[in-house]
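TEACHING EXERCISE
Course module: macromolecular assemblies
Task: Read the component lines below, then compare them to the predicted structure of the full complex.
Student: A.B.
Group: 4
Components provided:
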Amino acid sequence: MTVLSKKEIVRRLSTRSLVVSPIIHKEQIQAAAIDLRMGNIALLVRSRGLSHVDPSHYRKGANIDHKHLQGQQQKLERFEIPFEKPFLLHPGTLALVPTLEWVRLPSDIKGVVTARSSWAREGLNIATANFINPSFKGIITLELANFGEIPIKLFPGLRVAQIAFYTVGTRTKTRKDSGAMALSQFDGQFEPTAGNLIDDAVDPFIPRKDSGKIVRASGGAER
Amino acid sequence: MLQPKTFILEECGNVSRILHESLRYDYGTTEENPFFDELRSRLTRFHTDLSSSDQSPEELETSSKIVSELSTCISLIERSHLGEFSWAFAECLKRIARRICVEKNLRSKFGDKNKVKDPIFHISSEGGLASYKIVCESEILLAIGDRRIFNIVFPRSLKSHVLLHAVLAHEVGHAALSIPGHLIGNAKNAISDGILTNRKTALQWIKKLRPAVKRVDMDQLDSWLTEFLCDLFGLLLMGPSFAGALLTLLAAKDPGGVGAPNQLGSHPPFHARLAVILQAVNILKWTNDSRRLPKLVREANRAYWNRLLNFLPNRRLSQCRLFTNQQVTHSIRAIKKAIPSSEFFESVNQIPLNSLLNDLIDFVPPTGSRVLKNGDVSLERIDFRLIVHAGWLLWALKEQRDAGEKPINIKFFDTNRLCERGILQQFAIDEMIARSSPSNS
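Instructor-supplied answer key:
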């Protein structure tokens, strides 16, 4: 796995085999990464009425009741932030924001997103490093958190993160190819959303509450 | 029991309180302050005038209407959250509409008397497919104000459908027509001498489409003429995408194309509107197949115009035709005379169309940013109308190619969202171009 150099990044961007768009200044392309700008939406946790994160609330399906659906929808408050309007990120707050850039990776490249170190020194962090799967396309969701002690004023268009690219040993097949792995749940996204914390097929350990009985994901009722 | 004047003053206070409550919302990218300031000063003036004078019953009736309309106008703020409509598209449309609807003779009555007062465009969203409209405030409300207020309404469910938003160009025509003395009114004269202005010929024509219609209402036919004019205006302003948007929306609303069987309705039959649009695009030579265009654009153009031109059989088209080519030509000329040519789609640089179309085929938002081989970045201003046009061309190309060997795997919703995102990203590109231009250095 090798990291792409600036020369290789430029080559791929100019031939459109790798897309990070729009690049609006050449200084955005660094020695081995591209700076990413903050987009125009911020999702913040709506604290009223929420005591904790419960993975079972993330269960998807037609039979999910109104309360859980509403909980999923109301967990995050959505703010649209036009250019030149500020957004204050308070200490201890987590905000999901999209990148301004649209990213499309080829099947032999994986992306790694991190905070820019100059912002990290002010307390702004991307809570976890984002791994972007090969063949991904869409906006990247930045999980911005203020680890400092004073609020940080942010504006859409600010360069807050960076993405480095790594080659993958063998070309990765995706769902579009035959017999391949599934694309990321965030593939093709236009704006940030909460992720799927659980998938009943993969996570059989979360109890399912149904008609007053606790039913296991396999379908057997608990006595 | 409250006396009428006392109650109107009470309601005036209520409306002021609502106005202050509205500050809790972010309801626009720009013009929040002017909208608030304009309404606050209107309320203050209205309250002062009303409380210091005795009013006749007629004057009280007018005052009652004013306070009621102010309440309606202010309540729009609560239906105008930025996340409920495509604000990037709305902002672009507002910029054009503001230039078209400026009244050079409307000077400030209460502030600097030498200053031309630009109109204020407020955006809101409402349910229903028929909600596309631009509402002009009444003259009685403007009488106590300094700036004319328009409300642009987007359908809530079509939040991201910028391809369909092209139809709002028709409403910009209505907005311009609602301004007393706007030159656009002259364009109506060009189509006013024909089938629809004679009761007998109008009835004969309508009976061909709707045999059950027994009589015609000349006022309604006059409003049809206005609709035809606004269609032509919308086409010139927004370009070819206006035709695609209009066809998509009207074909769903009026699949038969002739409207309700036994009444005229407020709008002309859809097929008659389409006939005028097709006459206009032929007159404008937009359907011509230019060899100078890149291969992809030519293919997409052909697919787009074939779809429109073949939507109706020729027999039906000639049956629905109301105007001669000369009338449509004169009307187009009159519209072009009323508005600076720089406002029309024909003045938009169309060279980037090929790269925008390629972006969309690659599932990338279309913008004017490119990275060059040497690492430099090329930035270009792209008019939002060209992005929407590229979206429609992609869709026509998809419909054509899906029947062949090279299908394009994209949904209409995603085409719209890519274009919407392209328009938003273009804001950042335009800003960077503006800041790096020599005049700003």
